[in-house]
Amino acid sequence: MINPSEVGKSGEMVRLRTLESIWIQGKLRMWGRWSYIGSGSGGNMFNQLLVSGKITKTAINDALRRMKKSGISKPELEAFFKEIISSKNKSGLAFCSDEEGLKIDGVIAGVLMNEDYRSLYGVIVDRHRLRKSKLQMANELLEKHPDWTLITCRRRIDTWISLAESILYAPLCDAFGTNGDRFYLQSEQESA
């Protein structure tokens, strides 16, 4: 099958369907960029610039001047732009508005900021806000647990990210008013 509807092994409880996974990862990626550039007051200027329909050279210079005043260093801004440019997947969904970012942030905080899921919140922040690779996260986990193997750490990171995405999927669908079952095909049977 060229476009499978599910990834992973059949019967796994934690995995999202392929399109659900793509949707949630896109939302989390946008939230990560939004929260990264929105961490200073200058980030909001950048978001406003991106959301506006027309970007002029004057508007860019004005935003850069305000960002400099707010304390965002040139290397931080450079690193942010390099990450966008070197990104494998170019998308128009790279950024979200402040409204969308706050909505996603509220859902993530509401769902994961409790005793049960606090560590999953850290995994989501590391992956999407701090933009760490899964391998980098696995190496950090290996430093904390030297008796584990690297492959064990990589599998745990994959599982934790998948679990966090699964937990966040339905609440994010509700927050954005989308139908969580929209990716099921009409002819597809429901699994038990």
Automatic annotation (TrEMBL):
The protein's name in its UniProt record: DUF1133 family protein
InterPro entries (alphabetical): DUF1133 (IPR010557)
Species of origin: Klebsiella pasteurii
Lineage top rank: taxon: Bacteria
